[in-house]
Amino acid sequence: MIKVVLLAAGLSVAAAWLAADGIRAALPGAPSAPLAARATLEEPRAGTATLRADADGHFRVDATVGGKRVPMLVDTGATVVALSHEIGEQLGLVSGLDRYDARVSTANGSVGAKRVVLRDVRVGSVKVDEVAAVVLAPGAMDGALLGMSFLGRLRRLETSRDRLTMER
């Protein structure tokens, strides 16, 4: 039960951030940088990746899930990796016949989700196998969140000002 509550809280915070980015982008005089802009990725040595925050202070990265590129927002408040329905389809994790029988809370209310296990998730040279995740029902969320089911399995996760360092 506590895991569901933590997942719900993390998804709510992340959905609010994503919604706020969209609202800011629509305002007159808003910066013209696209939402898809990624944090800078540095790899000082194998098994370590350092992200630099983007202009909004978020850590966005192009992760690799099962060999396929997936843009993600790093979210330490999300219990698990969370994927939109569209990304889940692209990765072959869901189909039109699937049931979304897990319930999670987002900024837009309670939504259905399907629990999945990702074969592997990689950020630069940092790789974690068998990562718990959820695919949200159609229309529940855009994008993907890199949550604690990946981040919590790292040897080190450290933030310092505008840098986030991951070590496996």
From TrEMBL:
Residues 1-19 form the signal peptide. It comes from Chenggangzhangella methanolivorans. Its EC number is 3.4.23.-. InterPro entries: Aspartic_peptidase_AS, Clan_AA_Asp_peptidase_C, Peptidase_aspartic_dom_sf, Retropepsin-like_bacterial. This is TIGR02281 family clan AA aspartic protease. One of its GO terms (biological process) is proteolysis. CDD domains: retropepsin_like_bacteria. PROSITE patterns: ASP_PROTEASE. One of its GO terms (molecular function) is aspartic-type endopeptidase activity. Keywords: Hydrolase, Protease, Signal. It holds the Pfam family gag-asp_proteas.
